[in-house]
C-alpha cells in the first residue's frame, strides 16, 4: 500500500492535484511517524558540548519499528476517518469549502482501503 501511495503522490504532484497530494503526504507522514522508535537513547550526563547529548558514533540512532500491512492500513483508515469527522464539523460551522476539501481527501485515502474499509 505504501509503495502505491508514494507512486500516486508522485503522479498527483506531476498532475498538480493538490487534494490528492495533500492527502497522500499526510497519510505517508503518519505512517512514518508510527515507525519512529520510542526507545530511550543513551545520554551523556557529563557532555560539555550539549546538555543531555548522546556520546559516541551512532549513539543517537535507534531502530525504527517495522509496520505490518495491517498497521499501515489502520493508519490510513484513521487518517480518512479524521478527515470525514472534521468535514462534518466544518459543515456544521458553515465552512462548506473546507468540508468539501476534507471529504475529497478522505475519498482519495479511501481508495487504498477498498470497499470493506
Structure characterization notes:
It is globular and about 55 Å long. It has a domain at 2-37 and 66-110: Hypothetical Protein Yqey, Chain: A, domain1, CATH 1.10.1510. With 117 residues, the protein is an all-alpha fold. The protein has helices at 2-14, 18-35, 69-92, 96-110. The two termini are 14 Å apart. The protein is built from 4 helices and no strands. This is GatB/YqeY domain-containing protein. It comes from Streptomonospora halophila.
Write the layout of secondary structure elements.
Elements: H1 2-14, H2 18-35, H3 69-92, H4 96-110
Major sheet description: none
Q: Count the helices. How many?
A: 4
CATH topology of one domain: Hypothetical Protein Yqey, Chain: A, domain1
What is the CATH class of one domain?
Mainly Alpha
Distance between the termini: 14 Å
**Averaged pLDDT:** 86
CATH architectural group of one domain = Orthogonal Bundle
InterPro entries: YqeY/Aim41, YqeY/Aim41_N
Organism: Streptomonospora halophila
Protein name: GatB/YqeY domain-containing protein
Pfam families: YqeY
Amino acid at each position: 500500500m505504501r509503495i502505491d501511495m508514494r507512486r500516486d503522490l508522485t503522479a498527483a504532484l506531476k498532475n498538480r492535484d493538490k487534494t490528492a497530494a495533500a492527502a497522500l503526504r499526510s497519510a505517508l507522514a503518519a505512517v512514518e511517524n508510527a515507525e519512529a522508535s520510542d526507545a530511550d537513547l543513551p545520554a551523556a550526563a557529563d557532555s560539555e558540548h550539549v546538555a543531555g547529548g548522546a556520546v559516541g558514533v551512532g549513539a543517537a540512532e535507534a531502530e525504527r519499528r517495522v509496520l505490518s500491512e495491517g498497521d499501515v492500513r489502520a493508519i490510513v483508515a484513521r487518517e480518512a476517518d479524521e478527515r470525514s469527522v472534521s468535514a462534518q464539523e466544518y459543515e456544521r460551522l458553515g465552512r462548506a469549502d473546507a468540508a468539501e476539501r476534507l471529504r475529497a481527501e478522505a475519498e482519495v485515502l479511501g481508495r487504498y482501503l477498498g470497499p470493506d474499509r
